[in-house]
Amino acid sequence: MAEKKTNYDVIIIGAGPGGMTAALYASRANLSVLMLDRGIYGGNLNNTAEIENYTGFSSIKGPDLAEKMYQGATQFGANYAYGGVTAIEDGGEWKTVTTDMDEQFRARAVIIATGASQRHLGVPGEEEFSGRGVSYCAVCDGAFFKDKQLIVVGGGDSAVEEGMYLTQLAASVTLVVRKDHLRAQPLLQDRAKKDPKLKFLFSHSVTSIDGDDVKVNGVHLVNNETGDKSTMPIDGLFIYVGSVPMTKPFESLGILDDQGWVITDQKMATKVPGIYAIGDVRQTPLRQIATAVGDGAIAGQEVYHYLQK
């Protein structure tokens, strides 16, 4: 049996849309590439029923798009392996990547594409109805709730912005805010309060989510000031209580901001030579498939230039 290859020109940590695009560009430049991911390639694409906002497809199922991207990513020889990365050691010319499967790989460059996970409410029914009325992305899923009754949970910029976006589609949107005020910037608050289809329910929290065999049909609420409980019939629930970058293994590199996002320049490079970051894991104003793919293309090309030096 041939010895397993452990040295590569570039290791890409994460095989979502950004990671697979970076693999395509780097391998097409004749670099040896390894994609590492703790799950199946595609990342969050595999949790998305329909995608209608990615150029080239009027509509495509998330897993189908993941398969097409994987075929493109590996057509020039990029390798793919399972393994959750636990650490990167910067050894200058060579970086050592350690996985939770007690494996170590070395590369002259590393691209971090681990993404971010949406912070969940942690209430009964949330996981059960994820994708069946519970969503964390209005841009992705809003079109499926045309003329429906929706609530958005959260009081920050994202919750207010996405709430206003959903009013263009839904019959009505109620913003459920844990505190007695919004945390969004004043300009957004002013715009939101002028939207006739956007309602506000302050000092309330969702305690559980109800539904039938098909989809969500209601939520249970508690008044955080009085303790009074109530129910609300709804068709969909959008949760915006923050997102969490998947960056714990990289804390020792000194490339994160105070919230854990990776800091990069416009070429996707971190301050550590040879280490790049792309997609949802980095500081970015928009986290979508298209932006991750763009980041991946830039990083794949920049790694080639870096190694040529």
What would you say this structure looks like, in words?
There is one protein chain. By secondary structure, this protein is of the alpha/beta class. The protein has two domains: 7-117 and 243-308, FAD/NAD(P)-binding domain (3-Layer(bba) Sandwich), CATH 3.50.50; 134-239, FAD/NAD(P)-binding domain. 22% of the residues lie in helices and 28% in strands. The chain has six helices and 17 strands. Strands 1, 2, 3, 4, 5, 6 and 17 form a seven-stranded mixed sheet that branches. It has a five-stranded parallel sheet with strand order 8-15-9-10-11, with helices on one face. The chain has a three-stranded antiparallel sheet with strand order 12-13-14, with no helix packed on it. β5 and β6 form a beta hairpin. α1 runs parallel beside α2. The chain is elongated. The mean pLDDT is 93.
Give a short overview.
The protein is an alpha/beta fold and 309 residues long. Helix content is 22%, strand content 28%.
Low-confidence stretches: none
**Main sheet specs:** 7 strands, mixed
CATH architecture of the largest domain: 3-Layer(bba) Sandwich
Percent helix, as a range, is 10-25%
Average pLDDT value? 93
| H-E order | EHEHEEEEEEHEHEHEEEEEEEH
Distance between the termini: 35 Å
The CATH class of the largest domain, by name, is Alpha Beta
Helix-strand category: alpha/beta
What is the count of β-strands? 17
Q: What Rg, in angstroms, do the CA atoms define?
A: 21 Å
CATH superfamily of the largest domain: FAD/NAD(P)-binding domain
Morphology: elongated
Indicate the CATH topology of the largest domain. FAD/NAD(P)-binding domain
Oligomer status: single chain
Q: Counting H and I runs of at least 4 residues, what is the number of helices?
A: 6
Q: Could you say how many structural domains there are in total?
A: 2
The fraction of residues assigned to DSSP E strands is 25-35%
